[in-house]
């Protein structure tokens, strides 16, 4: 009997221990998430309290947006007009250029041959026209003279451009050359050509003008071929579309250039002033107006504010071009493009990402026409 009592006592003790473990252990582990949740809620409270000053600081602005710095007139991306091998590049980074300056040249040997052949054909056709008997009256003679004037003006412009290109390259190579005189000659040649074309249009519109003769038609066709060859040759010249500073040079001699807006050969910008292109969400459009003051901040210059004013407001919403990556999604938000002119000469660089803060304006309304 004593042994039986002992075994019974041991079973009772074991049962009590099992009950205790089954009750206290789950309570202990279930308490840990509660403690962690309390800690996380405490941390969340701290983050909320730290976010309040930021929200309060931002509440002083009408709205804010991301932006990108660019030259005052925007970036001019110049590419090849036709495929070909890059024969030479005449500019480098930070060079100052004027409108019409030669930046690069594509291989042009084949096109020069076409121009020479077309010029020879036009010369022969003109001789045939002049030697043919004609009882043309005054109107026909006026048409002939104006056509000859246009042809001569076109050849003069081509020659003056060639002389300007030679002078420009000579000066870049350190040789003496009167580039400005050659540039002025090109400008005057363009004016004479425009005037000659205006006179030709007037002559062709005269009442009672007789039909052209066969030699005249042949000459007109030959001159058209010559003009097309000249235009094709000119497209091998990569010229500056406007005055500015060379911001990028992506062309190298010997490479093959192809017409592509995504891959320009040279990028030019007018750095006499800077502006910011920002994108405003649709909900904030009613807070904007032309002339509204703005502050621009950059991570590259911490603690510095750069002042500016809204110069242009877009008149239609569109997809974001500053922050979008990859194909457009249905959930993407459309934005309004805003141009902000910066005051003075800030040390910002074209292409920098910046933050734009617009000051509240009680007179702000819907975007105004520009």
Descriptive tags:
four-stranded antiparallel sheet; 14 strands; six-stranded antiparallel beta barrel; 5 helices; 3 domains; 20% strand; 370 residues; Elongation Factor Tu (Ef-tu), domain 3; alpha+beta
Verbal overview:
The chain is of the alpha+beta class and 370 residues long. The chain has helices at 2-58, 109-131, 138-172, 179-204, 214-234; strands at 63-71, 76-78, 84-89, 96-97, 102-106, 237-239, 244-249, 256-257, 266-269, 274-281, 293-297, 306-313, 335-342, 353-358. The strands form three sheets. It has a six-stranded antiparallel beta barrel with strand order 1-10-13-12-11-14. A four-stranded antiparallel β-sheet has the order 2-9-7-4, with no helix packed on it. Strands 6-5-3-8 form a four-stranded antiparallel β-sheet, covered by helices on one side. Helix 2 (109-131) packs antiparallel against helix 5 (214-234). The protein is elongated and about 145 Å long. It starts with a helix and ends in a 12-residue tail after the last strand.
Short synopsis of the structure:
The chain has 370 residues and is an alpha+beta fold.
């Amino acid at each position: 009997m004593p042994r039986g009592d002992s075994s019974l006592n041991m079973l009772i003790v074991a049962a009590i221990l099992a009950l205790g473990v089954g009750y206290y252990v789950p309570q202990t582990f279930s308490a840990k998430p509660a403690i962690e949740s309390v800690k996380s809620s405490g941390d969340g409270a701290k983050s909320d309290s730290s976010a309040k000053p930021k929200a309060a600081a931002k509440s002083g602005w009408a709205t804010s947006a991301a932006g990108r710095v660019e030259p005052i007139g925007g970036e001019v991306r110049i590419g090849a007009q036709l495929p070909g091998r890059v024969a030479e590049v005449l500019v480098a980074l930070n060079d100052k250029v004027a409108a019409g300056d030669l930046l690069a040249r594509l291989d042009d040997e084949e096109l020069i041959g076409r121009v020479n052949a077309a010029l020879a054909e036009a010369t022969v056709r003109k001789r045939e026209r002049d030697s043919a008997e004609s009882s043309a009256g005054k109107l026909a003679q006026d048409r002939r003279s104006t056509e000859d004037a246009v042809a001569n003006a076109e050849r003069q412009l081509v020659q003056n451009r060639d002389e300007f290109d030679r002078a420009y390259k000579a000066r870049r190579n350190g040789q003496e050359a009167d580039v400005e005189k050659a540039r002025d000659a090109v400008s005057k040649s363009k004016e004479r050509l425009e005037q000659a074309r205006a006179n030709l249009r007037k002559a062709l519109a005269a009442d009672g003008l007789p039909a052209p003769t066969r030699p005249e038609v042949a000459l007109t066709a030959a001159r058209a071929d010559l003009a097309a060859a000249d235009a094709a040759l000119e497209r091998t010249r990569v010229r500056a579309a406007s005055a500015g500073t060379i911001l990028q040079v992506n062309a190298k001699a010997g490479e093959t250039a192809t017409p592509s807006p995504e891959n320009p050969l040279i990028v030019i910008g007018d750095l006499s002033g800077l502006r910011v292109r920002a994108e405003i969400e649709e909900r904030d459009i009613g807070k904007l107006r032309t002339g509204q003051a703005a502050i621009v901040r950059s991570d590259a210059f911490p603690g510095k504010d750069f002042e500016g004013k809204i110069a242009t407001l877009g008149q239609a919403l569109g997809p974001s071009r500053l922050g979008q990556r990859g194909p457009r999604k249905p959930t993407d938000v459309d934005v309004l493009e805003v141009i902000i002119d910066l005051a003075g000469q800030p040390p910002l660089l074209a292409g920098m990402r910046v933050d734009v803060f617009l000051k509240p304006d009680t007179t702000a309304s819907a975007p105004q026409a520009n």
